[in-house]
């Protein structure tokens, strides 16, 4: 007799595999026209782990995150979320998986015309319709307290600093209790003190929520602070992956050059 699982697999359901890494990309290739951006990248991140993806600007770090979220499709290769390949998924299935991911985009993290409170409430209003208005309100306050922004509910994004905008973006990314967190240059453009505060916050959030996190950055100091593992990419591929010490001890010329200039 078939088990329920076997029947579900036959129907193409229940493909989530709890033993698989939360995020895995395998041999990803992506070009734009004649420009090859990703050239066979493979990476995996488990729950509770933070991977920093480092590289010069223009090396495809943001493209990599967009492929993981499913905003773009690779030319070839796999993107597995909890073991399930998302590359061929229909939009509604993708939407469901995306709800398990929180992300903070590199630019324009917030909706300019919405208050801080409305920005954080946005995912709840769209994806937690069963939640009461007061329940949503309480959750927004709790999320903003978590990032130290509980006093600024009615402010507009243009009235708060860059570091505060990133905090609000983080609160919004956490709204649906994601088990995957993707951050694109969370400290770029911030002064060193605000950047260090964001690093501390990312560390705290990771300790509290045990997500699988990828933080894209070209800030080596930030990567060293927040990540368990670092991956340096160049020319569409991973040059080295390991601890900060392993990068420091590397003989690879590109790694030495990158560290020297960071
Ligand atoms: N939608 C797109 N169309 C054409 N080229 C793109 C697109 N997205 C990214 N690129 C190009 O891919 C390269 C990598 O971009 P990106 O991932 O943003 O780099 P970074 O590592 O700085 O985040 C850049 O040369 C960029 O111009
Ligand atoms: Mg980028």
Please tell me about this protein's structure.
With 262 residues, this protein is an alpha/beta fold. It has one domain: Rossmann fold (3-Layer(aba) Sandwich). It contains ten helices and ten strands. It has a six-stranded mixed sheet, sandwiched between helices. The longest helix has 18 residues, at 192-209. The model is unreliable at 1-14 (pLDDT under 50). The protein binds adenosine-5'-diphosphate and magnesium ion. Magnesium ion (MG) binds next to helix 2.
Question: Secondary-structure map with pairings?
Answer:
Blueprint: H1 4-10, E1 23-32, E2 35-45, E3 50-54, H2 61-69, E4 76-81, E5 84-85, H3 91-98, E6 101-104, H4 116-127, H5 133-146, H6 162-173, E7 180-184, H7 192-209, E8 212-217, H8 220-226, E9 229-234, E10 237-242, H9 244-248, H10 253-260
Parallel strand pairs: 3-8, 3-9, 6-7, 7-8
Antiparallel strand pairs: 1-2, 1-4, 4-5, 9-10
Helix pairs in contact: 4-5, 4-6, 5-6, 6-7
Bound molecules: adenosine-5'-diphosphate (ADP) and magnesium ion.
Residues 32, 37, 55, 57-63 line the site of adenosine-5'-diphosphate.
What does the radius of gyration come to? 19 Å
Q: CATH first level: which class?
A: Alpha Beta
CATH topology: Rossmann fold
Arithmetic mean of pLDDT: 92
The largest β sheet comes out as: 6 strands, mixed
Q: In the CATH hierarchy, what is the architecture at level 2?
A: 3-Layer(aba) Sandwich
Helix content: 25-40%
- Sheet-strand content, in percent, reads 15-25%
State the domain count: 1
String of helices and strands: HEEEHEEHEHHHEHEHEEHH
What's the total count of β strands? 10
| Morphology | globular
CATH homologous superfamily title: P-loop containing nucleotide triphosphate hydrolases
